[in-house]
Protein 1
Amino acid sequence: MDFELPDEHRMIQETVREFCQGEIEPIAQEIEDDHRFPEEIFEQLADLDMMGVPISEEYGGLGGDTLMYSLVAEEIGRVSGSVGLSYVAHISLASKPIELFGTPEQKERWLRPLAEGEYMGGWALTEPSSGSDASDMDTVAEKEGDEWVINGTKQFITNASEAGSVLVKAVTDPGAGYDGISTFIVDPREDDGFEVTTIWDKMGLNASPTCEIQLEDVRLSEDRLLGEEGDGWDQTKKTLDGGRISIAALSTGLAQGAYDHAKAYSQEREQFGQPISQFDAVRDKVVDMHRKTERARLLTHQAAHRYDQGEPVTRESALAKLDASEAAREVAEDAVQVLGGYGYTTDFAPQRFYRDAKLMEIGEGTSEIQHLVIGRELGL
Ligand SMILES: Cc1cc2nc3c(=O)[nH]c(=O)nc-3n(C[C@H](O)[C@H](O)[C@H](O)COP(=O)(O)OP(=O)(O)OC[C@H]3O[C@@H](n4cnc5c(N)ncnc54)[C@H](O)[C@@H]3O)c2cc1C
């Protein structure tokens, strides 16, 4: 494949980089410390047309491809994991499925405000007792007349407290296994019975709300079913194929951000009368940080490119996510080390990248699950 970025992609990358450095980086540690969702940043991203990058223009998006979207996610990740996580959950998990599986009416009603950045979106699969084994869910949707009635609890749902729509997975046919799961569009602000019961304190990413939600007799009209009844699991797999590319892009951004800090510091900091980058041990560390970041980016762009060609990407997206998330954690850990004692303080960014990067090995399927997916794809 051709790794030279098209001009349009470069332009978007530069615009977003400038925005991230000017508006997000200066407040990145403060919003983490305050556990504050930065609403104003998402309003500005909406003004830049960034809230629906890979969504068609017909429904308020930018009409870009997955490669362009990956570049944007990477740039945001380079300065803030929190903003990045809320951003990719909004697009890959909450918006893209409506574009892929919704009716024209659903797209007009639910996709347009997401793509235009009127409000955030969420996607609710995980439950207190089902994570990796996500299809083993307890949330149920029962038909009563021409309404669906949903009951259950969803766990660790990104953006739920800020969302204008949440896509909720529920069992509609308990005997049908994978074919008995469906997806519903829930309006957290208008639908009675929807409640955010917890916003978790986490080891990182605290400016991105991670919520437990309770659904108690939430009554929905039939037009809130996304796609066909029983399609929920198939939709989940397709959603995660795309979502994992965005986590890989975000991870690449975290790795790049951590590397940038470490490289600059290693050239400024002097010990024993010379910049620490002159010591082989430090130089080799920084070189390896660069190597891992570049590798993560190549795998991410390869997966994005294949997705844009309409090719199956289950293996490629899992591979990119597995590699880039590991790279982000390792590079961020090494960045803390390169900064020495200062790296351990919150005055410097590497500790934040380190804490944020860890989630990338857990969300949208843990690294162990990515191995399982890749092994299956390899016929093992
Ligand atoms: C910050 C954050 C944001 C999130 N956002 C969302 C969201 O927006 N929407 C949503 O639906 N979910 C979300 N999640 C949930 C996330 O996807 C799950 O936490 C993740 O899939 C793991 O599930 P679990 O936590 O139940 O762990 P478990 O599945 O209980 O896993 C525990 C450990 O067992 C291992 N394990 C489990 N099964 C296997 C196996 N078969 N082989 C080998 N090892 C195995 C796992 O790899 C892991 O190490 C989020 C989580 C966090 C922390």
Protein 2
Amino acid sequence: MEKYGLLINYDYCTGCHTCEIACQQEHDYPVGKNGIKLTEYTYENHTKLCIDNLPFPTELCDLCLNRHQQGELPACVKHCQAQCMSFGQLSELVKQMEIQSRTVLYSPK
Ligand code: SF4
Ligand code: SF4
């Protein structure tokens, strides 16, 4: 059976935290419990200060199974205004990875 996953192109992530909040609201998680968590990395590149925002699903992420069964996108994907998250079959997401840079692919157990 084909597996599904999330592809995150963090090059375009603005660090807005909307995915975290959308996930918490969808699953009714309390403060401190997250299906996806944003981490900010700060580093210097040739004296230029750079910030990368890397949202990554936690072990609580079930890819919004209930929403998927109703034909809806995962809450985080739907609400990401930067549109840097994609949901789909792993085989299709891997093809997207081949033409994008700075991406991470997540697949649950
Ligand atoms: S909603 Fe999108 S832009 Fe905002 S933090 Fe999450 S992945 Fe980044
Ligand atoms: S796919 Fe659903 S469960 Fe997974 S991080 Fe996104 S909103 Fe949370």
